[in-house]
Write a structure and sequence with these properties.
Elements: H1 3-14, H2 17-22, E1 25-26, E2 35-38, H3 52-71, E3 74-84, E4 93-103, E5 107-116, E6 121-132
Antiparallel strand pairs: 1-2, 2-4, 3-6, 4-5, 5-6
Amino acid sequence: MRNGEEASIQSTLTRSKFFTTLGFELGDDSVERQLLLKVREDHLNLNGTIHGGVIATMHDNIVGMIVRCETNLNCVTVDLSIHYVKPAFKGENLCATGTIINDGKKIVMVDSYIRTMDGVLISRSTATLKVLYPSS
């Protein structure tokens, strides 16, 4: 990401207590947008693996970040379908990435992936987001 773009995104995201409480951080890859998370004790479910809601939130955040960066507009998720592939455990570092697969004027579709830093796929999603245009 470009420095100005990254600073703007970081500023926007850190205003969200939800984002910061979960411990999300922006990755520093210059090719694709990344959202990082180190799995903590408070992210775990009763089985000792990362809670599915944390995974869903990570997908929701990366797809929203991608659409905001591409459109320079706010957006909301209207559909999020997640496929959980493997569990993640305390101490693992996760990385979420995504790609726009359909870029409409009002509706954007994004595929996203969460992997360990070793490249193991934890989950994938397809999201549909509505772009919010300012009132005129």
